[in-house]
Design brief:
By secondary structure, this protein is α+β, with helices and mostly antiparallel strands. It is built from ten helices and five strands; from the N terminus they run H-H-H-H-H-H-H-E-E-E-H-E-E-H-H. It has a five-stranded mixed sheet with strand order 1-2-3-4-5, sandwiched between helices. Helix 4 runs antiparallel to helix 5, helix 4 runs parallel beside helix 6 and helix 8 crosses helix 9. The chain starts with 5 loop residues before the first helix and ends with a helix.
Length: 305
């Protein structure tokens, strides 16, 4: 899911990457300048990236209800499905790395033999929150994701070993699976939560990747911008690229599309404005009002109507 196709890699290498390198990002919008405006936090309200970037509720009243009114809402079906898909993907990628270290490059056959073993407990942990029909649907889709990723990982591992016959375990992992999964980040320099988790970070580019289930939304790019700023604040190297990976299903087939984008000044500015606006809303306990375009799947919908 996080690996680029040949066409996507060509588009990245010949178009987006050179453009990102030539683009001058305003220094005051680099994460490492977190100690001065406009990045310096105004309010002592640590927010999660999803709270800032998640604009499904156009007024942000979902955050007001959760943070100020202290209401809790059960996750909807799409949220439960999405979390299961994230866990499935993380599970297979981490498992592939573990098997390489466990068995070593010389036992490639054993690695490939054990790789297809399905992850345990992903559906079971969610069955109490889903109907029987939805649970069956989730089980089928988790299996589809697993089979899709196993096939791609097997090919990448075998191709890498075929090209580099003297490769060792650590290099095989870095070359065949160059993705850091669910990297934990401390966003406190930017007034964000200390316990952030980026879906994936691709090392060679470097590029923040965010997995979404459902229709593309323009504000999804705010998430990659937020994590890029945090990475810059922590490690002081530029992160100019983001990629939103859209996962959907067509029957029992997976469809995947990727929105690779440059994290430019405008995107960085929009993220910081959203941070300041939502932090102020919480600090001053401002009710932003019910959204006119309230989306049907909002878990707080019954509290607004």
């Amino acid at each position: 899911m996080y690996f680029l196709t040949d066409e996507e890699r060509q588009r990245l290498l010949k178009g987006i990457l050179p453009k990102s390198r030539s683009l001058e990002i305003a220094q005051e919008l680099r994460g490492w300048n977190w100690h001065q405006p406009p990045l310096e936090p105004v309010y002592d309200i640590p927010l999660a990236v999803y709270e800032i970037a998640g604009k499904y509720c156009s007024t942000g009243r979902d955050i007001y209800l959760r943070r100020i009114q202290h209401l809790r809402a059960a996750p909807n079906k799409d949220m439960i499905m999405g979390s299961a898909f994230h866990e499935t993907l993380a599970s297979i990628l981490v498992r592939a790395k573990r098997l390489i270290y466990l068995h070593g490059v010389d036992n490639l056959r054993q690695i490939l033999k054990e790789l297809p073993e399905p992850p345990q407990g992903i559906v079971e942990r969610r069955k109490h929150d889903l109907s029987t029909e939805d649970c069956t649907e989730l089980e089928r889709r988790v299996s589809t994701i697993h089979e899709f990723e196993v096939a791609r990982l097997s090919t990448r591992i075998q191709d890498t070993v075929a090209k580099q016959p003297y490769i060792k375990e650590d290099s095989l992992v870095a070359t065949a699976i160059p993705v850091m999964i669910e990297q934990r980040l401390d966003g406190s320099f930017l007034g964000l939560s200390q316990m952030l988790s980026a879906d994936a970070f691709v090392l060679p580019e470097p590029m923040i990747m965010d997995l979404k289930y459902g229709e593309p939304r323009q504000f999804h790019k705010l998430g990659t911008a937020g994590y890029a700023l945090v990475m810059e604040s922590l490690y002081e190297y530029p992160v100019n690229l983001g990629c939103v990976v859209y996962l959907n299903f067509n029957g029992d087939r997976i469809t995947v599309s990727k929105d690779i984008h440059i994290i430019d000044d405008e995107l960085r500015q929009r993220f910081m404005e959203e941070r300041d606006q939502k932090a102020r809303m919480i600090y001053e306990e401002i009710d932003p009002g019910v959204a006119k375009d309230c989306y049907p799947a909002c878990p707080f919908r019954k509290h607004c109507k």
